[in-house]
Amino acid sequence: MTTDLTEGKPSQKLFWFSIPLLLSVAFQQLYQMADSMIVGRFSATPAAGELALAAVGASYPITQLFVAVATGVNIGTSVLVSQLFGAKRYLRMKTAVSTALVTTAVIALLLTLVGALATDSMMAALQTPENIFADGSLYLRVYVFGLLFLFIYNVCTGIFNAMGDSRTPLILLILSSVSNVVLDLIFVAGFQWGVAGVAWATFIAQGAAGILALILLLRRVHSFDTGGHFLLFSPEMLRRLTNYAVPSIAQQSFVSVGNVIIQYFVNLCGATVIAGYSAATKVNMFALTCCMSFASGLSSYVAQNIGARKLDRIGPGLKAGAMFSIGLALVFTAIYLPFSDVLIGLFLPAGSASGVIDVARQYLYILVPFYIIVCIKFVCDSVLRGAGAMRPFMITTFSDLILRVGFSAILYNLMGSEIGIWLSWPIGWFLGSAISVFFYKRGVWKKKLPNL
Q1: Alpha-carbon Rg of the chain, whole angstroms?
Q2: Are 406 and 399 in contact (CB under 8 A)?
C-alpha cells in the first residue's frame, strides 16, 4: 500500500507513516543484538561467552562500513523515488527504480570481492587482540558473502518507503528477525557452533529477506500503469541517483570509518572493555535508531512534498517529527538509566566478570542524558536530506564525527582510560546539532529545488 504524504494533517500523516518504520528498526536492531546476546549467553563457559561477545563486537565496526554504503544507496534512491512519486512521474520513477537495482547489485558484488580478500588485514589493522582474532575474522568473512542480499534488501525497502509504504519493510523485518533468532538458537545453543553459528544465521536470514523484498518490489512497480516502456538502465537516472547517493554513502561511510577509529582505541583497552563496549553500544544503537525512525519518516515526507512543491507543509512536519523523536528519547532515558545493569546482563552469561558490566554501565551513563540533543540533529538533517540539500547535510555529520574521533584520541591519551572515549560522543552531538539547526533556519534546503 502506497501513501500520499502531500495531503492531510502533517502530524497524523507523519505519525502513522513512521510507526511501521519505528517497529522495523526495532526489529532490525533486535536481530542484530541477538547475535551478541545469544553467543554471549549460550557459550560453554562464562569466559568463552565474553570472548565470543568481544569477537563479534570487534568485527562490528567493519560490518558497519558495508552497512553504511548500503544505507547511503538506500537514502539516495529513496530521495529520488520520493520526489518522482510525489510529482506523479511514474514512468520516470520505474526507470529510477530499475537503474538503482542494477547499480546496487554491481556495487555489492565489488565490495564482496574486496571484503573477501581483505578480511584478516582489516581485523589486524584494528589491533584486534590475538585471543579473539580468529573468531572475529570468521564472523566478518561469512558476513561479507551476504553483502548482495544486504544491499538488495536496503535499496528495496528504501523504495517502498519512498512510495509511502512503510508496512512491507516492517513485515519483511519481522520475518527476518524471527528467523535469525531461531537460527541463532539452533546453531549456537543447540549445535554449539559459537561465533560461526551467529554468522551463518545472519547470512541465511539476510538472504531470505533480500530475495523476498526484491520479488515484492518488482510486483509493486509493475502495478503502476504508466502507458509506456521504462528503461532498464538510464545514464541520466544514474547521474541523478549519484548526486543523492554519493554524498549519502560518503556521509554514512565517514561515520563508519570514525567508528572504526574509535574501535581501535577501545581495542587498546583489552578484551574486558571490548566486551563491555560491544554490549553497551548495541543497547545505545537500539535507542538511537528507534528515535531516528521518525526522522526517516520525515525525510520521505519532505521529499514527497518537495516533489509536489508544497513547501508550506515542511515546517509543521519538522515540528511533529521533533516532538515524536524527543518524546521517544525521554522514554529510553527513563528506562536506560535505572535499568542499565539489567539490559547489559542480557548479553552476558551468568558469572561474568563485573568489570564488563562496569564498563558498559559507565558508557551508557555518559551518553544517555544527551539523547534529546541528538534527536534535534536527526530531524533537521532529515529536512536537508529529503530536500536533496546533501552538502549541508554532510557538513553537519562530518562536524559531529570529526569532533568525536578527535576528542576520542585526545581524551583517551589525556585520561589514560576508556572514559575519555565515551565523553567524545556528547561533544560531537552538541556541535553537530547546532550546525544542523543553523542550516535549517537559514533555509538552505529550499534554495535549489530539484527539476523533475
Answers
A1: 21
A2: no
3-state secondary structure of 304: helix
C-alpha cell at 301: 515526507
Distances (CA, A) of 18 to 141, 290, 291, 375, 432: 34, 10, 10, 15, 24
Helix (H) or strand (E) holding 327, with range, is helix 314-336
Q: Which has the closest alpha carbon to 282: 28, 29, 22?
A: 29
Taking only the tens place, the pLDDT of each residue in 149-163 is 999 998 998 899 888
Length of the chain: 452
Nearest 5°: the CA angle 356, 361, 364 is 130
Residue in this structure with the C-alpha cell 518504520, named with its chain if needed: 21
In contact, 64 and 282? CB cutoff 8 Å: no
Name residue, grid cell 561515520: 255
- Dihedral sign from CA coordinates of 393, 397, 399, 402: negative
* pLDDT, tens only, 239-289: 888 887 777 777 667 666 777 788 888 888 887 888 888 888 888 988 988
Q: What is the DSSP-derived secondary structure letter of residue 371?
A: H
